[in-house]
Amino acid sequence: MLNLIIFGPPGAGKGTQSEKLLSKYQLQHISTGDLLRAERSAGTELGNQANEYISKGELVPDTVVIGMVKNFMLSHPEAGGFIFDGFPRTTPQADALDVMLKEFQTGISIVLGLEVDEDELVKRLLLRGQSSGRADDQDESTIRNRFQEYQNKTLPLQGYYQSQGKYHGVNGIGEVEDIFGALCAHIDSL
Ligand code: AMP
Question: Active-site positions?
């Protein structure tokens, strides 16, 4: 089973590259951001609660996100592997993922990090906000808050996966196809 984490700050291109990877490697996509937005559109209580955090650029509580990922995995027993996109974002989430994958008698195969500097990320997110309608992509102070959350809570996971020899960083600036090629090269060398 190939289980990969696509890692990086907001706007690094995780969603774009996940779409390409899942079709090439026949994987199931788990984007916690997409799942939370779907809950919000459906008007569920979970979605309404999550929106309080999303609109401020804060992380949704771990228990909510972990429960959602677990349900998703249990409802896709046929999956040949998963791409985790936007998850894990905290140490408790990474620990919970290890436990969940162990229950599936598998583990994380590789962590691919898209590396992009902050000025470029802000430009990309503001541009995306114009077409996506995502409120959290339209306001620069919310975007800066998301980076702060990333620095404080998510970036430490890079070291966690590096110490296991699983982290591979790729330059996330350039042509989509070139970045995709660099990601595939890491996967194919497993
Ligand atoms: P994304 O689409 O991945 O940029 O996520 C949008 C927002 O959803 C984030 O700013 C968080 O508020 C929330 N979110 C998504 N994934 C997670 C996660 N793994 N843990 C906590 N909050 C999350």
Answer: 14, 89, 128, 134, 146
Global model pTM greater than 0.90: yes
Q: Which mutation among 36, 69, 116, 154 tests ligand 1's pocket best, with the greatest number of atoms within 8 A of CB?
A: 36
The ligand 1 atom at the shortest distance from the C-alpha of residue 14 is 3
Please state, for a pLDDT cut of 90, what percent of the chain lies above it: 96
Residue 145 near residue 54 (C-beta atoms within 8 A):
no
Where are the chain's structural domains? Answer: 2-27+79-116+166-188
Would you say residue 132 has pLDDT above 90? no
- According to the CATH classification, is domain 2-27+79-116+166-188 in 3.10.129.10? no
